[in-house]
């Protein structure tokens, strides 16, 4: 075997959502800001994303990140997130996973305020880990703010009259009750939910409701009655690229909480237990975002991550699938 590339990684999952932390094999990433570092990585190391996130080494749901030195004095470290598409924005389950990795491997320690501060291209993220010895039992943080952009939108699809809400967070999300489709948020019904996610996205786009430039519908959030007696709501987010959110505190949590608040079902400071499609639960609350002119809420979420393995990946130049592939 001839080896032209060698990578080391540590893999984690946060409520089933995978994160691959790339620990070796990437040269120094240039840039004085995190945005510059993101641009440098995209320009020079896009092949890394294809090799380590795509099959046969990864899969459609795999996400990755690269640790960098911090930009600001008060920060513990910097991180660049990578995904299969061009969306490299932060997501809460990846923040929880990388915080867990950095603490449990002893690379960083909590600051004097018992926090870990992370530099990202989207700005600083302050996390509040709860540790017992060397183990991270929980990580909490404020997620991206969100508000209901349009509500009670009626569409007609395949003989059904559906009422949906359009919510803006980092991107636009559509929220809908799965029962309106005669479905449940269960793993065995994912093929039908994915089919409907494409139909609903197309219907909403044809209405041309979105006036903001460079914005898109990122995902469809299907909600349902919970399976656990102490949960309030069960949901799953299906993204426009086919990815399925496994955790209850990912990108879909903020838009869902904003919709509940808009409908008077969740007050400021009240707690709610969300349940994911794989049955993991988390307790969330909201506060008002006073920095926005809109009636935006800030989701407060918490979760836990686990290290699943430490790996070495190599690339053989005679491999016909060097950069991998994705089956959707």
Automatic annotation (TrEMBL):
<dbReference type="Pfam" id="PF05544">
    <property type="entry name" value="Pro_racemase"/>
</dbReference>
<comment type="similarity">
    <text>Belongs to the proline racemase family.</text>
</comment>
<protein>
    <submittedName>
        <fullName>Proline racemase</fullName>
    </submittedName>
</protein>
<dbReference type="InterPro" id="IPR008794">
    <property type="entry name" value="Pro_racemase_fam"/>
</dbReference>
<dbReference type="GO" id="GO:0047580">
    <property type="term" value="F:4-hydroxyproline epimerase activity"/>
</dbReference>
